[in-house]
Amino acid sequence: MRTQYSSSTLTEECLERAGEALIPWFQKGEEVLDLEAYPLKKLAKEVAELSTALIKGKRGDYMGKYLRAYFSYFFPQGFLKTYFVLCEMRKILDLSWEENFKINDFGTGPGASLLAAKEVFSDLNPSLLGIEKNKKALELAGMLSGERILWGDFSKMTLQGEIALLVSSLSELRFPLKTAAKLWKNHRCLVVIEPGWAQGYSLIMNLAKRLGPPLLPCGGHRCKLGEGDWCHAALPFSLPPLTLRLNSLLRHKLKYLKFTYGVFCKNAKLKTWGIRLRSPLIKEKGKTYFLACWKGKPIRIEQRGKAKGGFLRANCCDIVEFEGEEISPAVFRVEDIKIKGL
Ligand SMILES: C[S@@+](CC[C@H](N)C(=O)[O-])C[C@H]1O[C@@H](n2cnc3c(N)ncnc32)[C@H](O)[C@@H]1O
Asked: Whose CA is nearest to atom 27 of ligand 1?
């Protein structure tokens, strides 16, 4: 039986589906790793050490050392981000796929990105391949997904396919742009997702200088953000209970799933477009507004009076339309916004 979705926006629908699809995979991983029997405080300490190592770029063999911590805390986030981006790709881009088309997931880790792709494209029965250099992570990805996982350094491989997925793996390479350019030659689409940091944004923008502006999230427009400014998605999410417990033990205050992304495709068009929200609703100094992007140019959309209507329903990444006056350069004051896809 198909689930009925009450959500009305594209972003909400993709997030709702993602949260639902994650649960069985996460439960399976919890069982394989016997996480119920693992002391929670010890796990939280390992997540803290792993987060510090990732932020400082001192990665070493983090997958080998912290596989349980990675799975408990980062696997759900990797799955949700990938699901969201691929779901958007299917809904916004005019692309057709043959049955059994090839998706290669480069740096698959314990399989979050591979499983998200398996879910989003399940109706087309794609041929999935994960590539991973860490044997413990590779084994878990294989066990969870039942798919073929290739062991080795993907920057040294030449693989072909329709979609090349790189979720939090491109920035781990010594020469990320060189590898991305090689993958672009051998795939129709390149999907790059990185953490929502300035470095993630700058990696995708450097890629855009070589491949042209990404279709998603930018609609194929060149980004006109000023020097020192950067952009990322910030979406509400539903995480598994174990991840939430770790989050509160660590006092991480994870409120939004934050990430940067770029979807580059050859011979593809947009089915719909408009103004792209690039922040959740912001309330400060008596003003209620969204940061948004209009043909690559950063703008601000302020609500006249109290937040209502579309302002209360919209999420970061929604595509919207509005009518209103420009009260100062790039600042619009409006009665309401209309969310596309409603
Ligand atoms: C941060 S994890 C992301 C895993 C997964 N894509 C996700 O979204 O959860 C990055 C993974 O890429 C793998 N990796 C990094 N460089 C690699 C390379 N050159 N060849 C193969 N795997 C690589 C790492 O071992 C790690 O498992």
From this structure: 109
DSSP letter string over 252-275? ----SEEEEEEEEESS-EES---E
Please tell me what DSSP assigns to residue 58.
-
HSE-up of residue 66 (Cα within 13 Å, Cβ side):
23
* Alpha carbons 252 and 187: distance in angstroms, whole number: 38
Best CA proximity match to 168, nearest among 136, 197, 206: 197
Residues 6+ away with beta carbon under 8 Å from 178? 155
CATH superfamily of 10-30+71-270: Vaccinia Virus protein VP39 (3.40.50.150)
Q: What is the pLDDT of residue 341?
A: 72
Tokens of 24: 């069985």
Q: How confident is the model at residue 203 (pLDDT cuts 50, 70, 90)?
A: very high
Token pair 């009518």: residue: 323
In the predicted model, what is the mean pLDDT of residues 312-335?
A: 94
Quote the pTM value: 0.96
Token duo for residue 298? 């950063």
Question: Who lines ligand 1 at CB under 6 A?
Answer: 63, 74-75, 78, 107-109, 112-113, 131-134, 137, 153-155, 167-169, 172-173
CA of 53 to the centre of ligand 1 (A): 15
**Rounded Cα–Cα distance for residues 226 and 218 (Å):** 15
User: Counting atoms of ligand 1 from 1, which one is nearest the CA of 107?
Assistant: 12
How many residues are present in the chain?
A: 342
What residue owns the CA closest to ligand 1's atom 12?
A: 107
**Hey, is 318 helix, strand or coil?**
coil
